[in-house]
């Protein structure tokens, strides 16, 4: 009976066949231990010389790293194994013999591993991170479906720049100028006016010449827009969403988190409601705690965000940033016009901003003023203004960066490990 490593527990004490790759191997004169993987997980295959035909044992001893095989044997419980099982091998059929596999069990430098990213993905650590990423994606779809959202697909090629052209990739769309999208937000707003609640999920691009561990040139964003929802209601939805993601990863990725040596108690502490501080309060605290040079009106860098986050055991919202720091579409606060109704959600443990969101301007005249103040073309944004001309309502939205969230949940230092094929400032291969 064919099965997979993920399903092998259902065949305890039975004979099964796996299609697998040999991740590693060690052998002596009487026994061979095969570290097998099939994409669904990892398991050890044990080949005992006295219990198999001589040719089977010789095949086992000669297997090379990443050779592909069909392996048959009896499933046996093993409490020491990460999966709880091992396979007592009786038969091996070689599908393809790999030679000189470049990523050996020894240590390799980061650049070497990045040059071989197409192969590095096969390792246990990278497998675990991709599984956590996958769980976050699936949990996202479940959460939004349960909260009345419709999935909307925003275009990747756009004719305008939602947050300014300095961080956009320019291209030609036949005879017209075009840009790779830096957000699906504006299109999601149009979707919200048609469908009430929508979310987008897709790649976004920032031509930002940054080399920090938090930045990628191409990354994936999960963005939500909600009609008839104001700022405070949006914050409640965001914290419930992030808490749900953490809960689902803890529930469904125990093996992966253990392999990554992740302190699961840190994730279990992610429970709504989250603490909130205003930008004003954050600046005052930072000035009193080692950042005296920081002035009101300046944006926070990584050291500022990390210091603020260390005060809490869960993510913290920093609300009401200065209007001058934020994009044109954010609604000014009702009691003062120098700050906007927005929030950045800062993750603990130094992982920085996970979510950025705001209430959007819904007044036609005010949005027109803001577009003009930012030197943006009213013709180019005519369709966006139409959303305020025909049945405008209060609405809000937010965007979550997938790779930063994977890094945070997985407890890894750099986002380059959280996406299958990272695009960095000096890397577009493979």
UniProtKB/TrEMBL annotation:
This is Asparagine--tRNA ligase. Homodimer. Residues 130-430 form the Aminoacyl-transfer RNA synthetases class-II family profile domain. PROSITE patterns: AA_TRNA_LIGASE_II. CDD domains: AsnRS_cyto_like_N, AsxRS_core. It catalyses: tRNA(Asn) + L-asparagine + ATP = L-asparaginyl-tRNA(Asn) + AMP + diphosphate + H(+). One of its GO terms (biological process) is asparaginyl-tRNA aminoacylation.
